[in-house]
Amino acid sequence: MLEAIRSRAQGWLAKLILALITIPFALWGVDSYFSSGGRNEVVAEVGDANITRQAYTDALREQADRMRQALGPAFDPAIVESAEFRQQVLQAMMEEEAMLQEAEAVGLEVQDAQIAAILHQLPPFQEDGKFSPERYKRVLAQRGYTPAYFEHQLRRDITLEILRQPILAGSLLPAVSAELVAKIAGQRREVSWHEIGPDAVAGQLNVTDKDIQAYYDAHKADYVVPEAVRVEYAVLSLDELAKAIKPSEKEVQDYYAANAAKLGPPEERSASHILIAAPQGEAAARKQARAKAEALYAEVQKAPKTFADVARRESQDEGSAAEGGSLGSFGRGVMVEPFEDAVFAMKPGEMRLVETEFGFHIIRLEGIKSSTPSMASVRGRIEEEIRRQQAQKQFAEAAESFSNLVYEQSASLKPAADALKLTVKTTDWMSRQGLPAEPFNSAKLLEAVFSADAIKSRQNIEPLETGRNTLVAVRVVDHRPARQKPLADVAASVREKLLAEQTASLIVKLGQSRIEELRQGREPAGFAWSAFKVIGHQQPEDFDSQTVRAIMRADAAKLPAYVGAAMPDGGYRVVRITRVIEDAADPALRAAVENGLRQAYARADAMAQLDLAKAGHKFEIKPGALEKQEQ
Fold first, then answer.
1. Distance between CA atoms of 311 and 324, rounded to whole angstroms?
2. H helices present in 277-336, as ranges
3. In which domain, by residue range, is 310 found?
4. Which of 39, 71, 188, 507 is the most buried (most CB within 10 A)?
5. 157 and 17 co-located in one domain
6. Pick from 302, 335, 369: which residue ends a domain?
7. Within this chain, do residues 69 and 138 fall inside the same structural domain, yes or no?
């Protein structure tokens, strides 16, 4: 029983959890899980389950945060404001709910003991190689999660992974497909080529002032200097408050005295057990198992030294029976509740008979292990915790004072900044399209900065929350409206663009006409073919990918065959194919092809599984669900 749980903790489930710790969850914010107030409007239905406006809003926010974190300066706030983004997030939520209902229908359930056993094996939650409840809570708090929410989400994601795993692992790959694709991938072709440069059509180029005017009139939106502002701003954050706090020696000593036991490794107990297994719900089997367990319990009470021998002979927990019933050391949260409650209430050497969902256990407590760390070893943690606690207490009061001062002294941020020892900074010119740096990569803050009232009044904007425990107050100090660039300023760049387009068009036409001549058996005058080379998908030499694709896709039933492709430098390459080489597929290539095809088949099977799950449930998006709401 317990060995199975431990072995799973080392496999793909643990990897999944580690990924979830590193990357914020895609769906359902904490507030929507623990509270029902606010926005309970139903935006979508999946079977009998509803997706609320609150859950959907939280999902949009978390997805946007993930993209902002992943893309950094390349993040475009406009993407997460688009209807396509909103549609994709809601669709993903509905598909996940359908799969969870499918898991429930087939009786798939992740037990509390499994979650606990896996969490105890994960390095991010360990100190000195052992699970630390305090570290567990601290790591989650840094990411904005409570243990209850984190474990709830893990249960959902592990359930989905278990449901999908047989499909992904069981996809069959037809041997003929792998062989055919490997053959195509390994094929090589002998080629020579002739390059046509832009100079070949230079004499035909003709861009007039009329052409430039027509292009400018048709593309005026491309030649607009966007609206821009310069702003001053001040940031109040819990992190900055914490940095300024210096805990006193008395505070550190007092905290250590009150929490020393919690700061050390959690108490662990070592125990042995004899399991008489009995399935739940089978009264007769349970009764018979109880009778046997009671008889064995009486036996080992009379002769405690025989416990290990009785465990080897009678215990039905294969993992521990061979070890005389020994389960080794473990902390709280690993065993099922009745078992754990008994172990942590016993004294060393004491024995008890306990019933759990697995059957009846005769438990003997072998020992208790706990330790108190030295002050020096935990001083850094204590100071960090004191700073965090004091900053949290200060932040609510500071945030209220910050908001009041920003509002009352609306003509300047300086009074609020001086009162709270903050720095007022001023930005350079920035536009909505300029991918502003923090804190202006917040869509909410950017919207406020470019509002008509903020630009007109030049007064402080009410502080906005741009992140967890982070408030930003802003005032527009200068504004530059959008303006159309005059033709005179852009005529040169328009001419250059039109010349490039005209060159590309003419050179492609020239290249295609030369290929047509070659196919008719006439070689154009002045054509100089390069030396022969053999290329393939895996050996592109110096060819660009577009040319390689054209060569490998060309019909080589009749040789020589001719194809052409535009080159990255603006030229055009006419290629002559003179030989097709069919070699036996390289083993490494064959393995790579098989792996890629297997993944493709697995993805297709997973999509089919999802389609079946969706087909079995009502799948409805409510009217107006995708409309943007205030967050």
1. 5
2. 283-302, 307-314, 318-321
3. 267-369
4. 507
5. yes
6. 369
7. yes
Beta carbons of 476 and 455 less than 8 angstroms apart:
yes
Smallest CA-to-CA distance from 391 within 139, 141, 63, 129 is with: 141
Distances (CA, A) of 514 to 174, 190, 192, 517, 527: 43, 20, 15, 5, 9
Q: Helices marked H in 468-586 — which ranges?
A: 487-519, 545-553
Closest CA to 515 of 440, 553, 565, 465: 565
| 164 and 21 together in one domain | yes
Nearest Cα to Cα of residue 556 among 575, 523, 579, 583: 579
Distances (CA, A) of 125 to 29, 113, 134, 135, 386: 22, 17, 9, 6, 21
Same domain membership, residue 442 and residue 558? no
Give the span between the Cα atoms of 76 and 84, in whole angstroms.
Answer: 14
Read off the tokens for 559. 């040789």
The distance in angstroms from the start CA to the end CA of the chain is: 47
- The answer to whether 272 and 307 are in contact (CB under 8 A) is yes
Q: Which of 159-163, 461-465, 534-538, 614-618 has the highest mean pLDDT?
A: 461-465
Q: How far apart are CA 214 and CA 146, in angstroms?
A: 61
Q: Which H or E run includes 229? A: strand 228-237
The closest alpha carbon to 55, from 84, 21, 27, 83, belongs to 27
* CB-CB contact of 228 with 615 (8 Å): no
Residue 620 token pair: 């409805």
Mean pLDDT to the nearest integer, 435-452:
84
Mean pLDDT in residue range 73-99:
81
Q: DSSP assignment, residue 331?
A: -
Whichever domain contains 133, its CATH number is 1.10.4030.10
Give the number of residues written for the chain.
Answer: 631
Token representation of residue 294 = 């009671």
Handedness of CA 373, 374, 375, 379 (dihedral sign): negative
Which range among 17-26, 242-251, 541-550, 613-622 shows the weakest confidence by mean pLDDT?
17-26
**Alpha helix ranges (H) inside 335-426:** 337-343, 375-408, 414-419
Distance CA 290, CA 296 (A): 10
Structure tokens at 493: 């760049």
- Quick one: which of 311, 297, 308 has its CA closest to 342? 297
List the structure tokens of 395.
């932040």
* Number of separate domains in the chain: 4
* pLDDT tens profile 120-139: 888 888 887 788 888 888 77
pLDDT at 513: 94
